[in-house]
């Protein structure tokens, strides 16, 4: 009976810690699209348009906002998954396509289509990636 009470107390404490730590997980998932859109906005600015002082100031301002946003995410335990040139991991990555490559080892992530994130030790969103595979002609030789 005493052991049951102790186990209940430990489980209750663990549940309380988890609710504090992960209580905002749905909000965190929703806010990631803001980070994606900010990156897309910066990427969409044509190279030739980046020469005027006005555009340079706008780009610098957007980069400062992006840096602060990333800092706030990190403060709350949200980290971007490092996917490029890593071995494909089905726990962290979602393969969107395979790309034949003789230069890159099979199974390595060679393109990140959308960034993935974790919150503490839980997956918020997988990285959407392209994975290298051996060309068909190389596979037939073996």
UniProtKB/TrEMBL annotation:
GO terms for cellular component: cytoplasm. One of its GO terms (molecular function) is adenyl-nucleotide exchange factor activity. Its main location: cytoplasm. InterPro entries: GrpE, GrpE_CC, GrpE_head. It is found in: Cytoplasm. Gene3D superfamilies: 3.90.20.20, Head domain of nucleotide exchange factor GrpE (2.30.22.10). Pfam families: GrpE (PF01025). Keywords: Chaperone, Cytoplasm, Stress response. PROSITE patterns: GRPE. Homodimer. This is Nucleotide exchange factor GrpE.
């Amino acid at each position: 009976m005493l052991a049951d009470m102790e186990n209940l107390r430990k489980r209750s404490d663990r549940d309380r810690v988890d609710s504090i730590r992960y209580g905002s997980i749905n909000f965190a998932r929703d806010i990631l699209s803001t980070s994606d859109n900010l990156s897309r906005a910066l990427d969409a600015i044509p190279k030739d348009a980046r020469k005027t002082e006005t555009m340079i100031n706008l780009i610098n301002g957007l980069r400062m906002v992006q840096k602060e946003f990333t800092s706030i995410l990190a403060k709350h335990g949200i980290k971007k998954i490092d996917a490029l040139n890593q071995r494909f991991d089905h726990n962290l990555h979602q393969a969107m396509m395979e790309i034949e490559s003789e230069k890159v080892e099979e199974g390595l992530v060679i393109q990140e289509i959308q960034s993935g994130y974790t919150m503490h030790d839980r997956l918020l969103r997988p990285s959407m990636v392209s994975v290298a595979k051996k060309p068909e002609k190389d596979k037939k030789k073996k």
